[in-house]
Amino acid sequence: MAASSTDPRTWSSYREASKSTAGAGLGFVLNGDGIVCLDLDHAILPDGYLTTWAEDILRKAGPTYAEVSPSGHGLHIFGFAHVRQGRRIRRSGGYAVEVYGTGRFLTVTGDRFRGSPSALADISALVDELT
């Protein structure tokens, strides 16, 4: 059975989820416990480098877990912060950053970007700056 981002009864351990063939793939539910994700679409250029705006956000996030998104062109940056309601933030330059902290399921790849750490850092200042 596929998991629901709003029904904890459908959630499982990594071990159990990695064996499942249901749903959109292995993922992580943001449930308001302080773990947040910055979703940067179209952040990775065809040559593997980041766009200037994405590089700036990743630098400001500091040493925290970041992975290539399932599309291969985006970046998920995970960390700790307080986000009451997810939102898409349009930035000058035509790009947008999505910020989520609860009620959201994210398909994850485990493909760490540039060998980012496996631990999460406090990215509150960055979230505050973006919002």
Describe this structure as you would to a colleague.
- With 131 residues, this protein is α+β, with helices and mostly antiparallel strands.
- The chain has 3 helices and 7 strands.
- The chain has helices at residues 14-19, 52-61, 124-130; strands spanning 27-31, 35-40, 66-68, 75-80, 87-90, 96-100, 102-107.
- The protein has a 5-stranded antiparallel β-sheet, with helices on one face.
- It is globular, with a radius of gyration of 14 Å.
The major β-sheet equals: 5 strands, antiparallel
Backbone shape: globular
Question: How many β strands by DSSP?
Answer: 7
**Terminal-residue CA separation:** 35 Å
What's the rounded overall pLDDT mean? 89
Quick overview of this protein structure:
With 131 residues, the chain is α+β, with helices and mostly antiparallel strands. It contains 3 helices and 7 strands, in the order αββαβββββα.
Helix/strand layout:
Layout: H1 14-19, E1 27-31, E2 35-40, H2 52-61, E3 66-68, E4 75-80, E5 87-90, E6 96-100, E7 102-107, H3 124-130
Antiparallel strand pairs: 1-7, 2-4, 2-6, 3-4, 5-6
